[in-house]
């Protein structure tokens, strides 16, 4: 049975590799000032080494748009052939400024402990007012270690 699952996993991996090598791909390389975009099309061109390279200069990130929760940046062509776009715009999600006051961890119930954190006053208004965190309790092996185990569970409050 394990052999069957292993063979199925290998087959899926090979299928994914073959699919991605045939599809059109953009390879991005980025440093502090520039973005290099290489477009490779099909397996025939890839084996012959034919690909177009477009080098772009990065613009500044825009302010966060509160409606879409995204910000954008324009890339301007610095060097490339006719197939390169003159400008490209990339977008990414804004990072919300959600800051929480950590609550205290509850006792272990069914090997789970819970903590409820409350939103701090100076946080983004679009953040959830509270967040609930849960984690598994460490198993207790004997009475001497149980008190120590409780402390270590309370200290490691991050998930």
Automatic annotation (TrEMBL):
Main location: secreted
Example GO biological process: mesoderm morphogenesis
InterPro entries: PTN/MK_C_dom, PTN/MK_C_dom_sf, PTN/MK_diS_sf
Start and end residues of each stretch annotated as Disordered: 129-159
SUPFAM superfamilies xref list: Midkine
The keyword Disulfide bond is assigned to this record: yes
Any Pfam family matching the protein: PTN_MK_C
GO CC terms, sorted: extracellular region
Sorted UniProt keywords: Disulfide bond, Secreted, Signal
Molecular function terms, GO-annotated: growth factor activity; heparin binding
Domain Pleiotrophin/Midkine C-terminal: 95-158
Subcellular location: Secreted
Signal peptide: 1-23
Biased composition (Basic and acidic residues): 129-153
Family in the record: Belongs to the pleiotrophin family.
PANTHER family noted in UniProt: MIDKINE AND PLEIOTROPHIN 1, ISOFORM A-RELATED (PTHR21050)
Name of the protein in its database record: Uncharacterized protein LOC112467766
